[in-house]
């Protein structure tokens, strides 16, 4: 990770701008889930991570209360990550198929993983004000990824959040509808946007998102970046 990304992350983890989210993330970290009583929870905003030369930014919703809010690394420690990282590994973008905690050896190639909201929200649902408070952090990350070509938005809230970030900057778009495997050009000089259902158990256990469907997303990314 570059020094500038590291400096940004150090600022991010000290953010306390959203009182509801600060209270929730810290309560969860203090009370803990029974299965993790012997572990120290992160309990702070979760920074992005990955390849500083990334061409693709994966954008999720927010840290899971007992996943990233516990481990301190995006999509780690819960079922969503258990579905995401094997798919990235199969596609050749992750060094290993598992991601349990920071410094476990997981490395990403061509990808940077982040989220619309950096604090675990109650019921996995940040409000609009909280999302807008957090979007500048995403914008700052993007400014430090000079090789960025496109986004993969995991879920509708991530999809809408990316568009909201640019709209707040004055960028105008035609109407765009979230669908799985939807592809959108955002405009000259901007990254493209590819959308996928979120790899949550709500989708993966019901068959709404299957491994083959998810693999198709990463195959399409490969074609788009010519890798």
Structural account:
This protein is an alpha/beta fold. It has a single domain, classed as Uracil-DNA Glycosylase, subunit E. The chain has 8 helices and 6 strands, in the order H-H-E-E-H-H-E-H-E-H-E-E-H-H. It has a 6-stranded mixed sheet, sandwiched between helices. It starts with a helix and ends with a helix. The model has no long low-confidence stretch (mean pLDDT 96).
CATH superfamily: Uracil-DNA glycosylase-like domain
Can you tell me the overall shape?
globular
- Which band does the percent of strand residues land in? 5-15%
Q: What is the rounded Rg?
A: 16 Å
Low-confidence stretches: none
Order of helices and strands: HHEEHHEHEHEEHH
Q: Per CATH, what is the topology?
A: Uracil-DNA Glycosylase, subunit E
Main β sheet profile: 6 strands, mixed
Distance, first to last CA? 22 Å
| Helix share bin | 25-40%
Topology:
Blueprint lengths: L2 H10 L6 H13 L17 E2 L5 E5 L7 H4 L7 H12 L20 E5 L12 H16 L6 E5 L1 H13 L13 E3 L7 E5 L4 H4 L6 H15 L2
Parallel strand pairs: 2-3, 2-4, 4-6
Antiparallel strand pairs: 1-3, 5-6
Helix pairs in contact: 4-8, 5-6
Task: Summarize it.
This protein is α/β, with parallel strands linked by helices. Helix content is 38%, strand content 11%. The chain has a 6-stranded mixed β-sheet with strand order 1-3-2-4-6-5, with helices on both faces.
């Amino acid at each position: 990770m570059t020094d500038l990304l590291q400096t940004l992350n150090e600022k991010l983890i000290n953010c306390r701008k959203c009182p509801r989210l600060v209270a929730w993330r810290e309560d969860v970290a203090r009370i803990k889930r029974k299965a993790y009583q012997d572990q120290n929870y992160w309990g702070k905003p979760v920074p992005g991570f990955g390849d500083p030369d990334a061409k693709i930014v994966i954008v999720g919703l927010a840290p899971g209360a007992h996943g990233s809010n516990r481990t301190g690394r995006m999509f780690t420690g819960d079922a969503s990550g258990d579905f995401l990282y094997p798919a990235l590994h199969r596609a050749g973008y992750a060094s290993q198929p598992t991601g349990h905690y920071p410094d476990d050896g997981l490395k990403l190639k061509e990808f940077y993983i982040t989220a619309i909201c950096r604090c675990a929200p109650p019921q996995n649902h940040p409000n609009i004000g909280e999302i807008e408070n957090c979007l500048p952090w995403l914008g700052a990350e993007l400014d430090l990824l000079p090789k960025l070509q496109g986004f993969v938005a995991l879920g509708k809230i991530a999809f809408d959040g990316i568009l909201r970030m640019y709209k707040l900057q004055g960028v105008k778009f035609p109407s765009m509808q979230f669908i799985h495997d939807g592809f959108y050009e955002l405009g000259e000089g901007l990254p493209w946007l590819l959308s996928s259902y979120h790899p949550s158990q709500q989708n993966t256990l019901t068959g709404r998102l299957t491994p083959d469907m998810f693999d198709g997303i990463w195959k399409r990314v490969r074609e788009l970046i010519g890798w």
